[in-house]
Amino acid sequence: MRTIIRAAIVLVILVAAYWGWALVGAAQLASAASQGDPEAVMQRVDLPALRRSLGSQIARAYLEQNPQFQKLLSLERGFVGSVGGGAADALLREVLTPENIAALLNSGRVGLPNAGAQTSWRAPSLGDAFRAGPLQVLMNSYFDGPLSFVVGLDSAEGRYGVHLHLSGITWRLSGLDVPQEVSARLAREIAERVGGAAERRGG
Prior knowledge:
Layout: H1 2-34, H2 38-42, H3 47-65, H4 75-83, H5 87-95, H6 98-106, E1 109-110, E2 121-122, H7 126-131, H8 134-139, E3 141-145, E4 148-155, E5 158-167, E6 170-177, H9 180-202
Antiparallel strand pairs: 1-2, 3-4, 4-5, 5-6
Helix pairs in contact: 1-6, 3-4, 3-5, 3-9
């Protein structure tokens, strides 16, 4: 019986330590962003994974707004290759610059390129999660895989999820769950770009 109790205690300690390590990684990312150091931020970002994460959400929103494209075999490939002609990837490349990623994590606001204030991207900053207190950030965080950790951020538009993946010994930003309202807004921006490109080709 004592052996089982000891093993349970050791397991709890290990889980707590691993959880704490992930939280430290998220806090270090937030700290780098708050210092306005894009280079330090990008050392903790898996940019291709982040683009895929946002791209898939935008693609789903785009298909919901344009049901005529629902028969596409591959959501992301069909959207980017056949429907968007690369417009989604182009938009994400413009938005997800080192400076913008740092600004989004720090101040929670990024203006979409060639868009007015109505389409600005506002989100709670990652630093706010830690300023709310250790218990709050602990309650709003969880593992969705052995090497994947999520910090939840609440906003007026809905809940964001900051995904971090353990790469080597560093927790890196690998995805961002955005509320449906935000993904729909980005999808409309894509639709406007695709429509404008079609008009130019037709003209």
